[in-house]
Structure formats: C-alpha cells, structure tokens
C-alpha cells in the first residue's frame, strides 16, 4: 500500500468517524430532550431544575462530539 492509498483511507475513515459521531450526539441530545419534556410534563414545578440539568448534559455531549470531530480532522491530516 503506497502513501496516497493510505492517505485516502485516512480521509475516508475520518469522514465516516465524523458522521458516526454526529449521529450519536444528535441521538443523545434528542433523548435528553425527550426525557426533559416528560419530566416537565409530569412535574411542572420542577421545570427550572430539569431545564438546567438538560442544558448541562447537552453541553457535555456537544463538547465530547466537538472533541471527537477535532480528533477526526487531526487524523485525516496526518
């Protein structure tokens, strides 16, 4: 396998990895939103606390997804 084939495979793997990462992050945030809406519907008086916890969890998921995307870009450019 020569260098150009290796580089092409690295770009393909980075693209597939980025797609999988974004699908996972989207699914995770969707599940958090669903759970938060269910919790707010059952206990409207706790909506503020639930919303705060939901935003923190969504931010952590976005941060992990961004970190993984940066890793994919770095691997594609090596």
Descriptive notes:
The protein has two helices and no strands. By secondary structure, it is mainly alpha-helical. The chain has a domain at 30-78. Helix 1 runs antiparallel to helix 2 (47-76).
Gross morphology is rod-shaped
What is the strand tally?
0
Helicity, as a percent range: over 70%
- What structural category arises from helix and sheet content? mainly alpha
The main β sheet shows up as: none
Which residues form runs of ≥5 with pLDDT under 50? none
Radius of gyration: 18 Å
Mean pLDDT, nearest integer? 90
**Helical region count?**
2
State the end-to-end distance. 16 Å
Order of helices and strands: HH
* Beta-strand content estimate: under 5%
Give a brief rundown of this model.
With 78 residues, the chain is mainly alpha-helical. The chain has helices spanning 3-42, 47-76. It contains two helices and no strands.
Structure characteristics:
90% helix, 78 residues, rod-shaped, single chain, 2 helices, mainly alpha
Detail the topology: elements first, then pairings.
Layout: H1 3-42, H2 47-76
